[in-house]
Amino acid sequence: MINPMELIDRTIMVTGASSGIGRETAILLSQLGARLILIGRNAEQLNKTLASLEGTAHHVYTFDLSNIDEIPRWMKEVTSASGPLHGLVHSAGLQFTRPLRIMSSENIEELMRVNVTAAIFLAKAFRQKGVSADSGSIVYLSSVMGLVGQSGQSAYSASKGALVTLTKSLALELSRENIRVNCVAPAMVTTEMSGKMLELLTPEQVLQIEAMHPLGLGRPRDVANAIAFLLADTGRWITGTTLVLDGGYTAH
Amino acid sequence: MTQQEFLRELEEVLEADAESIKGDETLADLGSWDSLAVMSFIAMVDENYGVTLAASKLASAKNVEDLIALLGDKISNT
User: Fold this and answer.
1) In the A/B pair of chains, how many CB contacts fall below 8 A?
2) Is residue A156 among the annotated active site residues?
3) Contacts for A49-55 with beta carbons within 8 Å, 24 or more apart?
């Protein structure tokens, strides 16, 4: 028996590891043999993720990624303790629904800072000497909202669409450094965050959303599997790609 | 927030003329209470009042007074 997605002896950093897709990804990666570095803002939630991981030798750090300029130095410090990284999953991000009539420039700037600027700076930090290993793999979390539109989602769509194209440019810029850069674009996945959102909707609205997913809503593991595929040797020849995981959402 | 401040915010959400909403209207009277207005209202209330409104609760609101009631003591009567 072989496991083409095994990650034994790989060290992988996961941002947004305190909940949802980030947490599930960390759990799966640990089951595939990776050492994890969990990043989030909430220590208690991060420790819950830590407790669910297989194996030992994992690390937990609280850090607020909106401190953009601190990211490179901070990552250098983290990896001087953990050893160089083989992978980085950027799962932290803000979700945001605002029709134009009530959108402020502050809203947009905050969203772009966390969803886009931090993503680019994580790559800037990752490529530093000693921070990443001989070969590295970065996976960003976009969304189907980065590929198709929806009312009230313009700023969020713009931020997630930016990840799709920055993935391509970074893939080209970093190929000579043996770093692959890819992106996943899920439709709605049942997490605590989306559950809270669904609770706010009327039953008719929930049915409408479900109907847009021919295979039903996704599970965090569906996204985690794709991220692991891109990180592991199965992704060796893949860079600059966005893998759509949407139960048929964008097939319409 | 006062009730008057809330009404000005509601005008923004509904894109109604300034000072046009008095507080005794039904939502049907206002005409522009559509899905984007509802989405805007939920976002505005979340941002300005820190209140997370369920769409089901909002769906049962029939008039402006019901909207005010949804925010309870976050809005003073003056």
Assistant:
1) 40
2) yes
3) A49/A17, A49/A18, A49/A22, A49/A23, A52/A23, A52/A27, A53/A26, A53/A27, A54/A27, A54/A30, A55/A30
**Among A142-146, A179-183, B66-70, whose mean pLDDT is lowest?**
B66-70
Residue ranges of the domains in chain A?
11-188+219-243
The reply to whether ipTM tops 0.90 is: no
Sheet holding A59-62, edge to edge: A59-62, A35-40, A11-15, A85-90, A132-141, A179-186, A242-245
**Residue ranges of domains in chain B, CATH in brackets:** 3-72 (1.10.1200.10)
Q: Express each pLDDT in A187-199 by its tens digit.
A: 999 988 888 878 7
CATH homologous superfamily for A11-188+219-243?
NAD(P)-binding Rossmann-like Domain (3.40.50.720)
For A109-158, write each residue's pLDDT tens digit. Answer: 999 999 999 999 999 999 999 999 999 999 999 999 999 999 999 999 99
Mapped onto helix, strand or coil, the DSSP state of residue A212 is coil
Strands A179-186 and A242-245: parallel
- What are the chain A neighbours of B55 within 8 Å (beta carbons)? 200-202, 205
Asked if B35 and A101 come within 8 Å (Cβ–Cβ), the reply is no
Partner-chain contact B36 A152, CB within 8 Å: yes
CB contact under 8 A, A152 and B53: no
Contact assessment for residue A178 and residue A237, using Cβ atoms and an 8 Å cutoff: no
